[in-house]
Amino acid sequence: NAGVTQTPKFQVLKTGQSMTLQCAQDMNHEYMSWYRQDPGMGLRLIHYSVGAGITDQGEVPNGYNVSRSTTEDFPLRLLSAAPSQTSVYFCASSYSPSGRAYNEQFFGPGTRLTVL
Amino acid sequence: AQSVTQLDSQVPVFEEAPVELRCNYSSSVSVYLFWYVQYPNQGLQLLLKYLSGSTLVKGINGFEAEFNKSQTSFHLRKPSVHISDTAEYFCAVTLPSGGYNKLIFGAGTRLAVHP
User: From B4, which residue of chain A is nearest by alpha-carbon distance?
Assistant: First the structure.
């Protein structure tokens, strides 16, 4: 299994440009999430999905869109990039509890985004 | 609402010395607690977790953590660190739930192990 994969690894955008960060998992996990990591702030949840066709907002959703058309893929779209969106973005996946109250989240390697 | 405070942003330590990384949380209800490790230029990896039961939890790479409900703490310890333990460590909390578990992360502690 490749686990959770993210592309690209690095990206530089100009203010106002749009782009899509790709995330895919091959573990048949139902749950997928996007986080951003900023110095001194840990990771903050942007959006998450509990299954194909179902998404919800996290702590910092503004300026980002998501969709989940398949179990495997969970792309994150920046509609009009701003310097405040310069960050490292992590995608994570986990399987649904199936009666258990917690399942481990598996993280991808991250995408480092710079917005000029 | 839950929150996590990691009391040290950076911890320098010499190789083979013991280390403790401190984590306090706030919550009015029972929570699950986690430590994640992030090696340079990599994603996060689960180190250990506390869900219930014994308050002393053992994880990978010789790390352990102790859950203290009265002090709302979940400190991470290792009796003898190695150079390869140099990484950033994140404490996180979530509510027990039958559904999606939203993780709340602390700001992170950068552990630097020196020879």
Answer: A42
